[in-house]
Write a structure and sequence with these properties.
Largest sheet: 7 strands, mixed
CATH architecture: 3-Layer(aba) Sandwich
CATH topology: Rossmann fold
Structural class: alpha/beta
């Protein structure tokens, strides 16, 4: 009987609906003057806990996953894809190196936080950006972008929506940073 009960409970778990998938949207900064250089956006670096399809919750030093939602792909790939779209939305598509184009600069990103801070009921996004001269390997400029925003609810939909809006603010700041520097 115990084996039958275990089989039934496993069957019930297998038929549970998959958690909803939430996405990030690209920011829509005002049009910017194209710059002379070509820049490639490297795949962002993130710790293993951040770089997943799950939404992270931090409570002091404790980390957990937010139940009831996930991203459509790993966070680093998703953030990079939406940042590329943000550059395009700013009128800078010609400045992005892609395909066989050789870049003058590389934008390296380190996603340091992308989470719900349970202690403050805020989402927190923190990204370090470095512009690297591809030919010399010299770091041209570095800036850290941080934003926090309160959440009305800690359910997955509310947290994902606020993370999306906060990420858009960070993406716009990154595009301005690159455009100002190049």
């Amino acid at each position: 009987m115990a084996a039958a009960a275990a089989a039934l409970s496993l069957g019930a778990c297998a038929s549970a609906p998959a958690p909803p998938i939430y996405d990030l949207t690209a920011a829509k900064p005002p049009p910017m003057r194209p710059f002379w250089a070509q820049i490639q956006i490297a795949e962002p670096v993130a710790t293993l806990d951040l770089d997943s399809e799950r939404i992270l919750v931090r409570d002091g030093l404790n980390l957990s996953l937010l139940p009831g939602g996930r991203w459509p792909q790993q966070l680093s790939s998703l953030f990079r894809a939406r940042l590329v779209e943000t550059f395009q939305n700013a009128g800078l598509a010609r400045s992005l190196a892609g395909g066989g184009a050789t870049a003058n600069y590389e934008l390296d990103l380190d996603i340091r936080a992308f989470e719900l801070d349970a202690a403050t009921n805020q989402v927190h996004v923190d990204v370090a950006a470095r512009i690297i001269d591809v030919n010399s390997g010299r770091v041209v400029d570095v800036e850290i972008f941080t934003a926090r925003a309160p959440v009305a609810s800690t359910d997955a939909a509310a947290v994902a929506a606020e993370l999306d809006q906060t990420a858009a603010i960070i993406m716009t700041r990154i595009v301005r940073f690159v455009a100002k520097r190049l």
